[in-house]
Specification:
The protein contains 13 helices and twelve strands. By secondary structure, the protein is of the alpha+beta class. The longest helix is centred in the last third of the chain and has 15 residues.
């Protein structure tokens, strides 16, 4: 970490900081947004976006690294991802039963995944004829059809087998009938984290071609006011290449009564009313509700997760900092009708 300060002397165009306060604030923001991991060697402790803000020290035994590098070096445990699950199945010879899969994932990540977590992941990557992984009941038998998404959720995971597509073909597991209709993925947290997680989930969906819409939702919780809603409301002007629809629902506690604000419609009409709505909401002693902005492309083409307009929207939302948000995205696939 001490080398960070050295860079301000390397580049003469950079303003030399009087103290490390601003640097510490930037590091904490980067950790909170999931961009960095802060690690202290003397205590052998790492801080990520899932932890409280780190007690940053600019010293020779403190380090800043990307999440990928932190996982690679063992500073933090790998996260449960499709790539990790597939690598686990391949390492087991292409076939692994449910209990063994849970045991190995716990060893890799330091935390036993819940059935809900693993089922949600497998519903994205192990469903349909084009999936790289296949779920079948144990023991896997020739002529059996791979489990569907709903079956993966309902089946006792102690009684299933996970196979690579090649292993399933070798056994004689039949591919499931082609599924139709888009899938919706969701993630929450600080904007940068939520967008990154949603992008990862979207790209994991079998035969995904892109995203048809992206919805970002900010909330006003009791005691916090409407600041987060006001912040998210500015994202439309910063992202002009996308079309937006707005849904606002807020319950207000006024000095002598209560009021509700509800709006559901296009950006143009909302922007005409926004200043008046927010000015009225500022009179409330308590506010509770949400603002959701749904983005689509103007020519109805899909958005690629983690690229282009997805990245623009993610960066703009993170810059505005509307607190923790929920990011939903509808994923189109080659089989979508």
């Amino acid at each position: 970490m001490e080398h960070i300060l050295d860079w301000f002397w390397v580049d003469p165009s950079m303003e030399i900081p009087i103290d490390a306060t601003r640097i510490v604030e930037c590091i904490r923001a980067g950790v909170r947004n999931g961009d960095w991991v802060y690690y202290e060697a003397d205590s052998e402790r790492a801080w990520t976006d899932r932890d409280a803000p780190p007690p940053v020290r600019v010293s020779s035994d403190s380090f800043l690294m990307t999440p990928a590098r932190a996982a690679e070096t063992g500073v933090v445990a790998p996260q449960l991802t499709a790539a990790l699950v597939e690598a686990t199945v391949v390492a087991a010879g292409g076939t692994i039963d449910g209990p063994a899969l849970y045991d190995r994932l716990e060893k890799e990540t330091g935390k036993r995944p819940t059935k809900r977590e693993l089922a949600g992941l497998l519903q994205r990557v192990a469903v349909g004829a084009g999936s790289r992984l296949v779920v079948a009941t144990s023991p896997a038998q020739a002529g059996e059809t791979q489990l569907s998404g709903s079956q993966i959720e309902k089946t006792n995971h102690d009684r299933f087998t996970l196979l690579t597509r090649a292993a399933a073909d070798s056994v004689g597991i039949l591919a499931a009938a082609t599924t139709t209709g888009p899938r919706v993925v969701s993630a929450d947290g600080p904007a940068a984290v939520a967008f990154a997680k949603a992008a990862e989930k979207a790209t994991e969906v079998t035969s995904a071609t892109g995203v048809t819409w992206i919805r970002v939702t900010a909330t006003a919780d009791p005691g916090e006011g409407i600041g987060d809603l006001r912040a998210l409301g500015k994202v439309m002007a910063m992202t002009p290449k996308l079309d937006f629809t707005i849904e606002l629902n807020v319950e207000l506690g006024l000095p002598n009564g209560q009021a509700s604000i509800a709006y559901d419609g296009p950006t143009a009409d909302y922007q005409k009313l926004e200043s008046d709505l927010m000015r009225f909401a500022n009179h409330a002693s308590e506010a509770q509700g949400s603002l959701a902005v749904t983005a689509t492309t103007r020519d109805t083409t899909v958005v690629q997760p983690g690229m282009g307009e997805w990245t623009n929207l993610a960066n703009n939302t993170a810059t505005l900092n509307p607190g923790n948000v929920t990011v939903d995205a509808e994923v189109a696939t080659k089989d979508t009708k």
